[in-house]
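task queued by scheduler; priority normal; single chain, no ligands, no partner chains; default sampling; output format set to structure tokens
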Amino acid sequence: MRGTPSRTPRRPPRADGGAAVPSARPAAPPGEGSGEGEPAELPPASGGFLAKAALVTAVLSVAGSLLGLVRDQALARLFGAGSDTDAFLVAWTVPEFAATLLIEDGLAFALIPAFSMALARRSQGAPGDPVRALVAGTLPRLSLAFAAVGALLVAIAPQLVGALAPGLPDPALAVGCTRLTATCAVSFGLAGYCSAALRAHRRFVAPASIYVAYNVGIITGMFALGGQWGVRSAAAGVAVGGCLMVVVQLPSLLRQLKKRAAGETAEDEAAGEEPRPLDTALLVTVLLFALCRQSQVLIERFLASNLPSGAISHLNYAQKVAQMPMILSVMVCTVTFPVVARALAEGDTERARTRVERDLSLAACIVLLGTAAVVACAPQIIEVLFQRGAFTARDTAATAGVMRVYALGLLGQTLTGVLVRSYFSGGRGRWYPVGAMATGIVVTACAGAPAVGSWGVYGIAAANAAGITVTALTLLAGTGPRSVPIRTRRVLAELSRPVLAALVATPAGILVAGRFAGTLSGLVAGGLTVTVVFVLLGRALGVQGIARALRSVRSATRRLSHGRT
């Protein structure tokens, strides 16, 4: 087998000169521990455990996404797709950036490898508790940084709105909303810290539930305060929802931090080790990568701000719905990223490579199936989800058209999300992914500026798809010494099969969906056609991701049906 050979993990000697003795206790089940002094072994990263964790994460994430759709439906119903909604969506840029920087990508890429390394050191008999030392060295400093950024955003809100959307008809409303959403710099930062720590401990329920809590806060705010505050109620809901994201995770994290390593005594705990801050180069590079990635939103909002009223709203609704397949596909990596980071921390490169290649195959199948369904049934999806109240049939047609163009970049979005984790999973700063993302941003800006004049919002969406595809190809070309050394040619050959299946399934779905007069019946028929054609053709072509997905679902449901953890 080509590539970097695997290495057997070696346990370092203890600081007192004795040999590090592995724990003889069996691994704890993947439930929540109960109290202080309880052994801190992690649940085993078996295929069954990962399948169950992925299923639980998927269920909660889908619930959060569905609530996100309810949130967007409520926004469209209460406030339409006009200037007020545009003002809020400019302010929405703050939580969008904060989610990427502090929860989904940036901070997680730095913290999960750091916690994985600390857990590996603890299991190898390091003195004291490396996990608590990491928390002591990082949480206070990061909390101060979050608070400072939040205060800065409140102070510069007028200038920020002017830079993001210079053509906005009511900048004062956007400024007020931005000052409310600026609170998420603190709440999202703390929520992201809790999520990263819990995932490294292989605890996935609480982190997966944060967007359920978040969207509940926003929806409640809109319905409770919408009559008095107008669209500002949605911004107030963002502030409340951010706090709820922390609240739902804090008990679980405290339980994990109270646990002691196997064999640790009270004297060992008291001695401990010095607080360990994060590697500065790692933190800088992951945050810059996430900032560059989210800059695509800034470019879109900037280019669309001079288009007719409602253009930003059409882009927003189209992007939110189109990205759902990508969110589901990258969910696989949310569960396996701590496994890859732990494997590299233990020196097992072969296990890390196998895991990343499987993730690429499975994630590509999920996103390509979703892409085919989105393109085939775009008008029906938007009509069912949004066409009511102030959201008209004209808004449906515009949003569906933009969504079909956005969908062309979904595979690039997914590959970028999977591949970048392989660059940062070793816990070291890497500048190559930052350069790859910056290249994609340049492509988006250079293609979008002329395209918006000729094709409007469609040109913006096409530029987005082109930019992220360039980033994904650049990341794929750079794998090797800089990241987990995957076998690029083998990966590309495997990806070509589900792409072919999606190309055949999409027109089949369009044809069937168009034959039904009813919107819902056309959506169901088109979606089923896409799924059946994609799965059958994929199995015939030998797509490994489909077989793995089916095995994972069977394994997870079997474990859940037997009530095992």
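post-processing summary
- The radius of gyration is 24 Å.
- The mean pLDDT is 81.
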